[in-house]
Prior knowledge:
Elements: E1 3-12, E2 17-25, E3 28-33, E4 42-45, E5 50-53, E6 55-60, E7 65-66, E8 69-70, H1 77-84, E9 87-94, H2 102-113, E10 120-127, H3 132-145, E11 149-153, H4 164-177, E12 180-184, H5 188-200, H6 207-211, H7 215-232, E13 235-238, H8 244-255, E14 260-264, H9 266-270, H10 298-306, E15 312-313, H11 346-355, H12 362-376, E16 394-404, E17 423-433, E18 436-440, E19 443-444
Parallel strand pairs: 1-4, 1-5, 6-9, 9-10, 10-11, 11-12, 12-13, 13-14, 14-15
Antiparallel strand pairs: 1-2, 2-3, 5-16, 7-8, 16-17, 17-18, 18-19
Amino acid sequence: MSKKIIKGGWIATASDFFQGDILIEGEKIVQIGGNIVDPDAEIIDASGKYVFPGGIDPHTHLDMPFNNTVTDDDWETGTIAAAFGGTTTIIDFALTAGESKLANAVEKWHKKAEGKAVVDYGFHLMIHDLNEETEKELPILLEKEGISSIKVFMAYAKEFQASDRTLFKAFKIGKETDAVVMVHCENGSVIDELVEEARRKGHTAPIYHALTRPPEVEGEATKRAIELAHIAGAKLYVVHVTCKEAVEEIIRAREKGYEVYGETCPPYLVLDQTALEKPGFEGAKYVWSPPLRPKSHQEPLWNALKAKQLQTIGSDMCSFNYNGKKRLGLNDFSKIPNGGPFIEDRFSVLFSEGVAKGRISITDFVDMIATSAAKIFNLYPQKGTIAVGSDADIVIFDPTVKRTISAETHHMNVDYNPFEGMEVTGEPVSVLLRGEFIIKDKEFVGKIGGGKYIHRSLAKEPKKETQIIN
Length: 470
């Protein structure tokens, strides 16, 4: 069994930041302390570097069909990009729309990932309609497949939107099984009416994607989801929160003692609605849902993260090439495939804009990028922390280097980057998955198909971190 010692780095967890060594044996961390010596171990010099737990991205869409097309990053290219970005575990969404049996969707997602994923992964199960048959199937399938989270859309009326009745049934099953219910909170029916009104008036440019999905429809849907979850007694996780209206509803609910969690994504923290106004059709690069908001919404998001009213950072990775798929909506904004490529830059953008600029602490960064998601989605303490007994998922990170984000140098399978030209501080140098390098000195050395499916238990109480410190 191979051994490695990561020596002299600054180890960061969600609770501690200290200089020390980490002894890895096989796939696990077996010791943490100062001046660890083992003559049989490979030495990895982390002097001057930060040592983070591998990032957990709780929100990805790889090889996903949408708007009569399919995302351009599959489970190979998407997870390689994730690894370069410091992410060692992703949770993707198995879509069930059009499936007569929920199990068929899960099997389809297993086939997409197997033999391709280079990082570890799990699934959320999306629910479109709960009838008598699927209501019986769902709890059994969650237990069998180790899926501890259900996803429901309140938007995309033509593709994914569930009725309020299905949403409420999902909350009831969430309560019964202890599964987290994740909700895309936008009022899809109102959005459809606003889109039709804009098209009738001849408004076709990308900016109308944002103008037909105003913050109020996100705030209203967030409040509705919160109250329905509360009636059912379920845990609610609001995905990709973008605006102060939704943040205010989440804070209000949490102050009442409701079990509500919130996620935001890097573009909402650093980009704003003016990106959709770029000349020509350039704004199409920034079309995703919910849309970018006016800049005034960024501060409430940062404040909520700092106050832990929002807990996680997902990428909402959903990549479509600009030259080709995005241009399907050249004459009609509503036909632009919704989504952007973020999986690779999630880690660095949050570090640079959060830690390096003094908005959040380094321990809060670890919590947002890994630990909270591990706890919410029952991966902890196997994943999401640096502790004795945990998987040796490790990111060795240079906190001083400056680089410029560009499509020329990223590893995602798309022809643009929404953060093009943005200078960031900090970069993953080497990444280990279960004790083995997948990125070494900024080169991919992993194995295609080396990622494992993680079976997550339901109703699992997180164990306390234990460390051996000399």
